[in-house]
Amino acid sequence: MRLQINGEPVDASPAPGQCLRSLIRDQEHFEVKKGCDTGDCGACSVLVDGTPVHSCIYPAFRAEGKQVTTVAGLGLPGDLAKIQQRFVDAAGFQCGFCTAGMIVTASTLTESELDDLPRLLKGNLCRCTGYRAIEDAIRGTHTPVNGSDVTAGADATAGPERGLGPVIKTGPRPGTVGTSLAAPASERVVSGQEPYTLDVTVPGLLHLSVLQSTQAHARILSIRTDAAAALPGVHAVLTHADSPATLFSTARHEDRLDDPDDTLVLDSVVRFRGQRVAAVVADTLAIAEAACRLLEIDYEPLPAVFDPHAALRPGAPLVHGDKDAAESRLADPARNLVAELHGEYGDIAAGLAEATHIVSGSWQTQRVAHTHLETHATIGWLEPATADASTDGDRLILRTSSQVPFLVHREICRLFDLAPERLRVFTARVGGGFGGKQEILTEDVVALAVLKTGRPVQYEFSRSDEFTLSPARHPMQIQVTLGADDTGRLTALKLGVLADTGAYGNHAPGVMFHGSSESVSLYRVPNKRVDAQSVYTNNLPSGAFRGYGLGQVIFGIESALDELARTVGINPFDLRRLNSVGPNDPLVVTHVEGPDLIFGSYGLDQCLDLAQAALARGNGTPTPPGEHWKVGEGMATAMIATTPPRGHYAQASVTLNTAALGPLGERYTVRVGTAEFGNGTTTVHAQLAATALNTTPDRIRILQSDTDAIGYDTGAFGSAGVVIAGKAVLAAANDLADILRQAAAREHGEIPTASWTLEPDGLRSGETFITLADLAERAGAAALRGVGAEDGARRSVAFNVHAFRVAVDTQTGEVRILQSVQAADAGVVMNPEQCRGQIEGGVAQAIGTALYEEVVLDGAGTVTTSVLRNYHIPQLADLPVTEVYFAETHDVLGPFGAKSMSESPYNPVAPALANAVRDAIGIRPTELPMSRDRIWRLLHPARS
Amino acid sequence: MDLNTVLTITSARHRDDLAHLGTQVAPLAGGSDLFADPQTHLTGLVDLQTLGWPALTLMTDADGPVTESGTTPGLTIAATCTIAELSRLECAPGWTAHPLLHQCCTALYGSFKIWNVATVGGNLCASLPAGPMTSLAAALDAEVLIWRRDGSDERMPAAAFVTGDTTNVLGTGDVLRSIHVPASSLAARTAYRKIALSPLGRSGVVLIGRLDLDSSFVLTVTAGTVRPVQLRYDSLPGAAALARDIVAIDCWFTDAHGAADWRRAVSGVLGEEIRAELATAELEDAPLEDGVRP
Q1: Hey, what's the signal peptide range on this chain (chain A) (predicted)?
Q2: Does A931 touch chain B if contact means CB atoms closer than 8 Å?
């Protein structure tokens, strides 16, 4: 059939059941994304004869004779449509994976429809931004940082005492640190031209499909593969017989010993419903799926356990009873215990004995799915060794959607016994991660398939795979007991944590330790006790997720503190002022932390003041009418270490290009290992390099997240992108600046090195000027190159305070957010607009956790919320505009005084909201999400 | 998503072409439901859009004898009419209930882009409790026309079409042809309420009250019950009677979009709001324009 795509005629022969999305992508129009493939997320939105549709549910054959318009048909870099330019100007994206569909949809909206924007945009989901910036882009406005476009009331016009102020678009030196430079990829992202993991054509590509376990716990007695293998087009059927026998963990850390080795690429025992049983590699995905249906599995069912309490009881079914505790690094596999922490500082019994006030409670958090819009995916292939390579065999290449390409590289080498030079791992732009891509979930089986077949192989998760296969946030039970004297000064803090890590122990120890760390050390208490356990069950595995356990434990501790403030009768802000650590206090969990952890700067006092003042100022939003609405306020605090403990390494280089590159004339090339997945580190790296080299960011090309580009980078997790990788980039840029001055001095021996100053086009000393082009030419093949590294040996702490005013409908349980405020101590803010976006996005995810999201299991290991329409991530309609305020501090460790600010905004939100609900209705919610039906049930216990 | 097991698409031109339907061959209307889930049991689809059914047909007393679409004056909606087409239908004289058409469209979980392809009949046939076209058709006491596989026609109340969570009266090879809304219902006053676990989320309950010109009242409860439930009264009931009857409904259910006890309770709240609104409307002349309860 014939159709037109962006005005170009196309001849295509769709399969009868093909959808338009895949047909368009078959034509290499990769700007049309797959986010869900079920018509829910909108990433695949296109126009068909001018009418917007979700192309994933649009039968391809119906496009015959039609004009299809993608986002690229609206405009391209250098010639953007107005709506595309507005997304650039408003920073209306982070990872950018939803952006193409978002813009196509927005392009159809008329001015008069904007009042109905929440409804019209409910079919376009963004997991990164929290939508404020998207709404600004669509409306062509800029919401001030105090969130206020309210004109009613004198209070509304009173600005914050201190904060971001108007966003700085340009400065004396546009694009240097402290200005709101747009992401370097902006124009490509808004036109769909920035390639993501699967946006590439690989000749001869085979596709891999996985058969998932129907059993929660079973031994595989046999797998009959003959029918599947005999299907024409099938190249390989992979079972546990083909798997390397090396145990590993899907979780990746700088130190691989952080996580228990309990996983095989393909195992003869399955431990959760949905686990990989076998994989088929075939010419097409259709054939691979058909072959999977022909596999016959003979299971021997084993007893299973789904409740973490039950898992600890004597006689419970053992999930990894076959593992050796020492070899796999498990606390006690005979008790399903992956990790535990029991420790005491001071004397908890004495602390409680001397307390005037004691509060105690138990809190429960739920499983949460990352729901990054780009699903996990890897393409692997072999490249023949070239003459100048040090290898004599083929080289395995993995192009993958990962936050940690170097750690993937290490572990794949270990699993498949490859010399390091025999493997290259790289990422394109990654479509969101939030911790979910700090795992090996696709790379291992692709590597196996490529090595087995010798052919290029692609494996792409479906959205349902994300819900049933990929690890979720650890559900935790948190028990807190607090003691305080009559003034509210804490005398005792006792914490109990039970985490359900599911069928595998990836991230189990780390999440448990980290969750129990800064949540506790934030408070200056003479007597503390922590008892934490992370246990196996036959549920979906849990893993790393923004905040890394802190969000869950802080929910319990900050709720308990709120209860204590009520008991003592003091303001919750004052309770924090009284008890929080100050810059001269030791940081203590069960012993004094450090010495690597320091107060590089301290802004908690400012954050408390800013949030309290904003809440007191109000925002003019009226309370809904009717006596059934109850209003309340609540707040919570969070502290986080700026980087992970025990080392986080980054290397970077900056090279003076021998010739200016590309249409923009890029003069420098930055090479850095960390990945860009919407965190905005690339933008900050460009700013850091531009500042150090006194140039503009458009003269800087950045090559990243490629094991061939640079020596090493631990990865984009633990909020390390600015304070670790950024510091390495800054060091490399400074190094190059020195080298350039020395080179200039060599050219003009009479002028001392120190007198040269860098300018965008060259170096100047008084009247003497030498161009960068000249220096590059003189250097020739021995390119001028600066290098930098950072080891994360010393770490700082960052602070976030969140406050809410809410109204609760006592008839329905609805929680309506009237005001949302977050104050953050990010040190010196490198890019105000972008940092604000990180905070807004973290708050949005946390509101999702607090009010809406839950991966539901049926109690027997089956995920019942396996499609996006049954797992509600926030839509535009669900979120308030959050007022964002920054403390003014200057960190002694971070580049130019910066601190990390990407995980931490999530952490104080759920307890702040719960505390506000408690204030409104007089009953404390102790369970997440605080869905309408749960809140209603709190209010009407007799009727349920 | 790609339906990789589907090997044939038959463009239906005549009713005879529906003979291709079977357990492995399903009717295709907009595709928004079929293409949103794996359908590995299917090998073929029969395209109903090529039958060219007129989307919306208005019948008045003056139109004379009515043929296949219905036997009474009113509005006949082809099963293949898109939700977008229905939402854009202009008000005809005397259609007091007209706002309800658009209100029910907004209760669809899918976006306005889904409206452009999803059909009224497809929504009924998916038979999800939260299907807003089921809510609409039931609330207006519409009659559905079913083309049975054996060539016979069958009419039945739309409220009886959906029998449970994703089940309905259609057998293999049967096709929903149209939905006929009687003029008397279109002339009635209606009040609409929806609530979900989030402001615009998939419906937890959708309640629609209809006060006919003869003062009879019917409350149609959907989304929170596995099938539509209708409470009928000769005239507007008192608050206590309505509350009692709502509580007595026995098919509330629990899923990711709300717990059964909550659905029952908020139905009591919304039912009373509807009752009060229509009681006021009996006195004033002001139907509620925006019935969405955020």
Answers
A1: none
A2: yes
The pLDDT assigned to A664 comes to 79
In contact, A544 and A251? CB cutoff 8 Å: yes
Question: What CA–CA distance (Å, rounded) separates A679 from A830?
Answer: 13
Burial B101-116 (b: 16+ CB within 10 A, else e): bbbbbbbbbbbbbbbb
Q: What is the pLDDT of residues A907-927, one digit of tens each?
A: 999 999 999 999 999 999 999
Cβ–Cβ of A122/B255 closer than 8 Å?
no
The CA-CA-CA angle for residues A794, A797, A800, to 5°, reads 160
pLDDT of residue A148: 63
Chain A positions touching B42 (Cβ under 8 A) are: 17
Query: What's the pLDDT at A659?
Result: 87
Assess contact for A423 and A409: CB atoms under 8 A: yes
Q: Which of A33, A44, A55, A57 to mutate to test the interface with B (most CBs of B within 10 A)?
A: A57
In 3D space, the residue among A256, A398, A253 whose CA is nearest the CA of residue A708 turns out to be A398
Rounded to whole angstroms, the Cα distance separating A642 from A798 reads 6
Confidence at B71, pLDDT banded by 50, 70, 90? low
Name residue, tokens 């105690």: A360
Which tokens is A65 given? 């004779």
CB within 8 Å: B111 and A867: no
Q: Say whether B113 and A42 touch across the interface (CB within 8 A).
A: yes
Do A470 and A505 touch, CB atoms closer than 8 A?
no
Contact between A653 and A725 under an 8 Å Cβ cutoff? The reply is: no
* Amino acid identity, position B185: S
- The counts of H helices and E strands in chain A are 27, 33
A233: burial class by Cβ within 10 Å (0-12, 13-18, 19+)?
A: middle
The pLDDT, as a whole number, for residue B265 is: 98
Compute the nearest-CA separation of A5 from chain B (Å): 19
pLDDT given for residue A781 in this prediction: 77
**Residue A209 is encoded by which pair of tokens?**
């499909």
Distance (Å, whole) CA A96 – CA A92: 9
Return the half-sphere exposure (C-beta side, CA atoms, 13 A cut-off) of residue A98: 28
B5-27 as b/e: b if 16+ CB within 10 A: bbeebbebeeeebbeebeeebbb
Query: What's the half-sphere exposure (Cβ side, CA atoms, 13 Å) at A206?
Result: 27
Residue A194's pLDDT is 98
How far apart are the CA of B66 and the nearest CA of chain A, in angstroms? 33
pLDDT mean by block of 10 residues, chain A; 944 residues: 98 97 98 98 98 98 98 97 97 98 98 95 98 97 74 39 42 77 96 98 98 98 98 98 98 97 98 98 98 98 98 98 97 98 98 98 98 98 74 88 98 98 98 98 98 98 98 98 98 98 98 98 98 98 98 98 98 98 97 92 98 96 97 98 94 94 89 95 96 95 96 92 95 97 93 94 95 92 91 96 98 98 97 96 98 97 97 98 97 96 97 98 98 98 70
Report the distance separating Cα B54 and Cα B63, nearest Å: 16
Q: What is the pLDDT of residues A709-749, one digit of tens each?
A: 999 999 999 888 999 999 999 999 999 999 999 999 999 98
Three-state SS sequence of B186-252: HCCEEEEEEEECCCCCCEEEEEEEEECCCCCEEEEEECCECCCEEEEECCCCCHHHHHHHHHCCCCE
C-alpha dihedral sign at A570, A573, A577, A581 = positive
Residues A212 and A277: their CA atoms lie apart, in Å, by 6
Alpha-carbon distance values, A918 to A563, A574, A750, B101 (Å):
9, 18, 74, 40
Whole-number Å distance between alpha carbons of A609 and B220? 52
Nearest to A424 by CA among A387, A461, A382: A382
Other residues' Cβ atoms within 10 Å of the Cβ of residue A851: 26
